[in-house]
Design goal:
The protein has about 230 residues and is α/β, with parallel strands linked by helices. The chain has a single domain (about 5-230), classed as 3-Layer(aba) Sandwich (Rossmann fold), CATH 3.40.50.300. The relative contact order is 0.22. The protein contains 8 helices and 10 strands. The structure holds adenosine-5'-diphosphate and magnesium ion. Magnesium ion binds near residues 48, 49, 94 and 173.
């Protein structure tokens, strides 16, 4: 990849969830530059999480191309795609998806298991996990079980897990939806500090237009995607 090439590129992507009341999403063109921070706004049910899954390669498009750093995710087979995702993308899921019985440290280190380059960049894993969790305002609790944490603490663990080993892309699925306005703003300060110091690309989806001010660019689902709903 040369400088200026988009790090993330969707080209005539179509996807339909199988089953009853199926939902079809078409994205003619979406391109995000390396280092950009983008907020994607859309109503609940407009396909934001579906789009992030297509970008992660956890679901594959029925037609069109999803390219991450120039690689078409459909060209990779299962195991290679999982490793590619772990190397390239840090994901903050809507429900955080922490391993409840794992410790904070286990959860933060998880992506490094599948991603040798990320592991190398992280250096000593536990030291890096401690640095990130401190930077994210988590008190010293690397040994605590994830299930014992408050929602705000779980969210910080999810952010540390997404950032460890500096993946080039961070995807965040409504990470502030469970927080009040004050904690939302503190959370975004921390996330942006980390994203800027790592020079990562950030794509965050939300239904909340108030978050827009700090992003380089705001996109709306209705402008970049067409959806069809079809009763079975
Ligand atoms: P948003 O994140 O914008 O709220 P989603 O992408 O979650 O929207 O959902 C868009 C549509 O896709 C909804 O109609 C939802 O029911 C459907 N959908 C989402 N996930 C699945 C799934 N795993 N299986 C079938 N349909 C799904
Ligand atoms: Mg969603």
């Amino acid at each position: 990849m040369t400088t200026g090439d988009p790090i993330l590129q969707l080209d005539n992507v179509r996807f339909r969830w199988p089953g009853r009341a199926s939902f079809a999403l078409t994205v003619p063109e979406l391109s995000i530059a390396n280092g950009e921070t983008v907020l994607l706004l859309g109503e609940s049910g407009s396909g934001k999480s579906t789009l992030l899954s297509l970008i992660c390669g956890t679901i594959l498009a029925d037609a069109g191309h999803v390219r991450i750093a120039g690689t078409d995710v459909a060209d990779l087979t299962g195991g290679a795609r999982d490793r590619f995702r772990a190397e390239q993308i840090g994901v903050i899921f809507q429900q955080f998806n922490l391993l409840p019985f794992g410790t904070v440290l286990d959860n933060i280190l998880l992506p490094l298991r599948f991603a040798p380059s990320r592991r190398e960049r992280a250096g000593d894993g536990p030291t890096e996990a401690r640095r990130l969790s401190t930077a994210l305002g988590l008190p010293d609790m690397l040994g605590a079980k994830a299930a014992s944490l408050s929602v705000g603490q779980q969210q910080r663990v999810a952010v540390a897990r997404a950032l460890i080993g500096r993946p080039p892309i961070i995807l965040a699925d409504e990470p502030t939806s469970a927080l009040d306005a004050g904690s939302q703003s503190a959370f975004l300060d921390l996330l942006f500090d980390q994203v800027r110091s790592h020079e990562s690309t950030l794509l965050m989806v939300s239904h909340d237009p108030r978050l827009g001010a700090r992003f380089d660019r705001i996109l709306r689902m209705e402008d970049i995607a067409r959806i069809e709903r079809q009763a079975a």
